[in-house]
Amino acid sequence: MTLSVWRYSHLVLAVSSSIFILLASITGIILAFEPISNRVQPYTTNNLNEITVAEIATTLRENYTEIISLEIDKNDWVTASIIDGEGNNEIFYINPKTGENLGKPTETNSIFQFATNLHRSLFLKSIGRFFIGLTSLLLFLISITGIFLIFKKQGGFRGFFRPIVKEKFNPYYHTLFGRWLLIPILIITISGVYLSLEQFAIIPKSKIVHQEDTLFAEESLLTLSQFEIFNNTKLSDVRKIEFPFAEFPDSYFLLQLKNKEVLVNQFNGTIVSEFNYPFTALISYYSLILHTGQASILWSIILLLACIGILFFMYSGFSIALQRRKSRIKNRFKKDACEYVILIGSENGNTFHFANALHSELIRLGKKSFLAELNSYKSYKNMQQLVVMTATYGKGEAPTNAKKFNALLQTHQQGKPFDYSVVGFGSLAYPDFCQFAYDVDDMLQQHANSNRLDNVFTINNQSLESFNQWLLQWKDKENLDIRLPSTVINKKKRKTYTFEVTKNTKADEQSDNTFLIQLKVTLGKVRFKSGDLLSIVSDKDHRERLYSIGKSDGNTILISVKLHDKGYISNRLNNLNIGDKIECSIVKNKGFRLPKKAKNVVLIATGTGIGPYLGMMHENNKKSDLHLYWGGRKKESFNLYKKEIDAQLEKGNLVSLRLALSQEQKEKLYIQHVLKEDGEKISEILKNKGVVMICGSVVMQKEVTNMLDEICKKYLKKSLSYYQNKSAVLMDCY
Ligand SMILES: Cc1cc2nc3c(=O)[nH]c(=O)nc-3n(C[C@H](O)[C@H](O)[C@H](O)COP(=O)(O)O)c2cc1C
């Protein structure tokens, strides 16, 4: 079954039952407090497993003249029903150890009564009960479809417990909490359905008929404390004890235990009849206990969390669905009238956001642009430019709305030649980064009349900065004055801090136009770790630039920057002098931190990608063995970092260093070549639970991951994705 069918069922079930689920969860939250509040009542006893039936029966006989019954409810409160000296029936809680009267049972708190009625029947008697039962069933089906969605998301059955890639808040926590609360929710729903079926007598309640002994044995008078069955039975196993109503041989003790009922001769304690409850009665008993959370505070807390979780799932689920709905397409012109065609491949709607931005800019510039999903690919009579923007899902597969593209491409031909560009949206956290974009590029290359304008451009984590980079290069080729609309730029505001420059090496003093700048926050404390990102927003075009940071002495930030001629922010940073101030914010990047547990870590970087590693070496107080591979152009290129690296080598914070200096010999030597030479060592590290980290450009990342894949296949007989799935390969590339 396809992803969309599961997703559609999940959503339809949720929408159709949302009001009832809402009511059931809110009342469920209130009711979860009932067993918790009951537990703190003075009648609650925690030692029922230390008291035998013989002890309590003897105590009661000593204290009261006539006893009718003794009952232990789901809160472990013990109630005695007796006839007093004046012949009145009295019911009260007792201390099971001493038999002391602890007071009369009080009415259930009115809030709990109200919530119980609403939860059970919506105050609508049978009809309400029916809807509540149905809601349980629907919630059960929602959970089942949810399980399949998690399988799909995590790349199969085995991936169920794998770490979830952290994307946006709602999808991430919807999946994470979904996994945690799955079992309690399944238990709530199955027990709810069972109790409803029983209410409507679809599952019959079992009746017990004892086969009584007709000999009515009266001989061998024993005291209650001598009854074997009474001595062998603890109160924790008892639900109710009915005492004999008269001193006749055909009047027995009736012991209702958790799993059976026993008739006991009142004179000698022999078992007259014993009846194990049928399976249905046990299920009924445990359904009630599990559904209400009585009998265990821990379980009632879990139920409480599950009900809160259900409310969160409703909120996050609907907002995910809304986000997808936002990806509606609005076209002003007919498809055959347009010179620009933008085709989208998207699962969760984010790619639409970018495609819409380009589409509206083209319209603003008076161009005729047509927007469509990849699955609606047709022939476009006047198309001159095709832009495909697509996400990748699963194991490098097409998103749902792009699955048919390949087939459609074979069916629909384009009459005129056209240029095309492919922009891949993906995440480096997945083994097959933007794979579907590369596949689309291959498909289009085979297509008659197509002319590829540029290589596939990949965008990690919906980076606005990368999208803008692509837009700049594309608009130059198209000679268009495109600007990113503010709806795209102002996605979210981050908390900013004022930083002061404490060191700046300046680009003109180094080869390769790179420099190292050190910043310290001026006021308050800002928390960050090496590998996090520093965000600087340009006051000119309001675009955000992100730099990987290293954490250095005294909570200072260290970044390595390449100066670009036209780069506004890199020029601004380069021109800063010691003592100058700059406003920046910190973006947490938890997926790219120095691993706490790995004994060996391989650090791979080219150029300024070394920045976070400078901090990581500094932070390496657990003394993992760090092995650095760095790629640059010349010997002098490394001078900027040499002093610091030598110091770290000396301290033992860095164990080995290998440089790949491309222009220092006749044949170009790149970082992947050096990695190949050290293939065996790297494979040993991966095999022994070590971690490989990669930081730098996406181009380098592609070469390096290809080489690592080769190494893994050669030495470990496994592909790199095996280690990526185990979070043994961390990447931060741009
Ligand atoms: C379940 C799941 C699987 C993904 N698989 C990949 C993948 O294999 N390769 C990749 O580059 N990105 C992968 N991604 C990242 C998405 O392609 C990326 O976040 C994209 O920007 C989402 O765009 P959309 O919201 O338009 O669907 C995956 C994301 C999710 C949630």
Automatic annotation (TrEMBL):
Cellular component GO terms held in the UniProt record: cytosol; plasma membrane
Residue ranges of every copy of the FAD-binding FR-type domain listed in the record: 494-595
Gene Ontology molecular functions: flavin adenine dinucleotide binding; FMN binding; nitric-oxide synthase activity
Top-tier EC class: oxidoreductase
EC number(s) from the headed UniProt entry: 1.6.2.4
Transmembrane region(s): 12-33, 130-151, 177-197, 297-322
InterPro entries for this protein: FAD-bd_FR_type, Flavodoxin/NO_synth, Flavoprot_Pyr_Nucl_cyt_Rdtase, Flavoprotein-like_sf, FNR_nucleotide-bd, OxRdtase_FAD/NAD-bd, PepSY-ass_TM, Riboflavin_synthase-like_b-brl
Start and end residues of each Flavodoxin-like domain: 340-479
Entry-linked Gene3D superfamilies: 3.40.50.360, Nucleotide-binding domain of ferredoxin-NADP reductase (FNR) module, Translation factors
Gene Ontology BP annotations: L-arginine catabolic process; nitric oxide biosynthetic process; nitric oxide mediated signal transduction; response to hormone; response to lipopolysaccharide
Pfam families cross-referenced by the UniProt entry: Flavodoxin_1 (PF00258), NAD_binding_1 (PF00175), PepSY_TM (PF03929)
Record keywords, A-Z: Flavoprotein, Membrane, Transmembrane, Transmembrane helix
PANTHER family: NADPH--CYTOCHROME P450 REDUCTASE, NITRIC OXIDE SYNTHASE-RELATED
Annotated protein name in UniProt: NADPH--hemoprotein reductase
Lineage: Bacteria, Pseudomonadati, Bacteroidota, Flavobacteriia, Flavobacteriales
